[in-house]
Amino acid sequence: MAYDPNNVFAKILRGETPSKKVYEDEYTFAFHDINPLSPTHILVIPKGPYVSFDDFSEKASDAEITAFVRAVGKVARDAGVAGDGYRILANIGHNGHQEVPHLHVHIFGGRPLGRMLPRE
Fold it and tell me: Which residues are catalytic?
């Protein structure tokens, strides 16, 4: 999947599409999902043009990677879900059902989330 500079997250970063911002630093942006699947559903994205986690881990600077990881933890703490537990999820590629070609991590929390995947 190639990076599309007109994807919705790129537009959010450029201020062309509105979002409900939760957190921002030099390298990272976090905002509420417009169709939340749990009481807390926040997206954390790097500001750089990275399609997936493997793309990000290969090309991002150490500062970008550190900022992203720290942002995920800070956002979870600030949202009040760190104490009771939460889930982070990054859908990557076709089989992972990635819908937007910009790396993003979902933070879900605020209720019991059940199993990650059914056992077969």
Answer: 104
CA R_g for the chain:
14
Rounded to whole angstroms, the Cα distance separating 48 from 25 reads: 12
d(CA 51, CA 104) in angstroms, rounded, equals: 9
Q: How many beta carbons lie within 10 A of that of residue 79, not counting itself?
A: 20
Q: Please state, in angstroms and rounded to a whole number, the distance separating the CA atoms of residues 12 and 119.
A: 37
Reduce the DSSP state of residue 17 to 3 states and report it. Answer: coil
Extract the tokens encoding 117. 């995947």
CA distances from 56 to 20, 24, 60, 89, 105 (A): 24, 18, 5, 15, 12
The helix/strand count (H/E) of the chain reads as 3, 5
Torsion of CA 53, 29, 37, 111, to 10 degrees: 100
H-run or E-run covering 58: helix 53-59
Contact 27, 56 (CB under 8 A): no
pLDDT tens readout for residues 69-109: 999 999 999 999 999 999 999 999 999 999 999 999 999 99
The pTM of this model reads: 0.94
